[in-house]
Amino acid sequence: MEEIKQKQPNQFLIPAAIVIAGLFVAGALYFSGTGSTPAPVVNNGNAQPVAQAPESTGSTDAVRPVTNEDHIKGSPDAPIKIVEYSDFECPFCKRFHDTMNEVMDKYGDSGEVAWVFRQFPLEQLHPVKAQAVAVASECAAELGGNDAFWKFSDGYFDVALTNNRTDIETVIPELVQEIGLDQEAFQACFESGKHDDRIAADIQNAIDTGGRGTPWSIMIGPDGTTYPINGAQPLAAVEQLIGIAQNTQ
Amino acid sequence: MKYLRILVAVFKRPYYLILAVIIASFVFSVAVLLPSFQLLLIVSQTASLGELLSLTVSLYGAIASNFTFVSASYTIAIALLFGMNVALLTFYIQKMRTGIKGLRSTGLTGLGGLISGSLGIGCAACGTFIFTSVLTLIGISGVLAYLPFGGEEFGLLGVALLLYSVYSLTKKITHPLVCPIE
Lengths: 249, 182
Fold this sequence. Notes:
The structure holds two protein chains of two kinds. By secondary structure, chain A is of the alpha+beta class. Chain A has helices at residues 13-34, 91-107, 129-159, 168-179, 183-192, 196-208, 235-246, and strands at 41-43, 49-52, 71-73, 80-86, 113-119, 216-220, 226-230. Chain A has seven helices and seven strands; from the N terminus they run αββββαβααααββα. In chain A, helix 3 packs across helix 4. Chain A starts with 12 loop residues before the first helix and ends with a helix. Chain B is an all-alpha fold. Chain B is 74% helix and 0% strand. Chain B contains nine helices and no strands. The longest helix of chain B is centred in the middle third of the chain and has 28 residues, at 69-96. Chain B is globular and about 55 Å long.
């Protein structure tokens, strides 16, 4: 006697799988859009964590107003400002730095777009070095002004191996010499810890605006609308966004 | 080789090919556009439909700029394999009329592959893996420093699970359940 052991397929299996997958996608969207921050640890340059950033509130409108204290490439009066929160040891920041330089080549001279650089060193991912380079860039700005800051950041990203692989003990002194900064004054600044508060404030503002990783940028349109740019988005997308922001004038 | 023939036979049928392409496109779009979800929402409130579509298309370029070679590779692989999985599962259910026991384990492997793979996506920009958020939520984000690929392991695991799921489904289609003689 043959016994047929077949059963009818469970009619709820596929809908259940779709619901589970849908829930997972929804969860992914939640984490992508409003999830908590990887809580960077602010470091004083001596590998001693001194503070831990609180969780994100996630509103791009919380972006700190751009002032003369900021590192700005382009006209400070440009109708469109792209505020970038960056980590010198992040490979995607290196890519996006090139993208932003291309954006500025096209829109900077005409005064249409300004690029504002703020610090967002991710201590968990790039311990010690990201914070140290952020401090070095602030010291370059202090000793040589805005131009020195941009020469330092362009120069650093040009040679950075990223992901904590850059030999900063060689690269930073070379850049300081290349830019023509006073090396003793630079060393004194670097070891002073005087820029830690500023860097901590930048990190805090990145988190307040919803930044969860780097590069994290906010485009501020002529009408004040803020547009989040998450990660190293391609040049074409940034240009599209500039066009959209210009149309809101 | 016979498994390959089965795959070709299934995907020669337009219904299953289109189903796989639609599912794969959806998974790929979610992976690439996920980091820009908030941006697209904001832009949709003021921009024209044409501007929104142009921006969306340009954001697909993020697969090159916002992913490492490894993460871009497994993101594409996960999308394709998940699309194939759903199409094969549908074929299996519709054509073989099999029992729930075999289906459940294969379906769960495929779903496990999607979940594991998804932990490795979101976009590869520093600190923005979904996995990072999950770890942060439970307060152990520092564990990332101890993972050799910083979370990308889950994407690769996802590919492996989905590959096994495709193999398993194809095997079941090749050797359908029979009525055993007792």
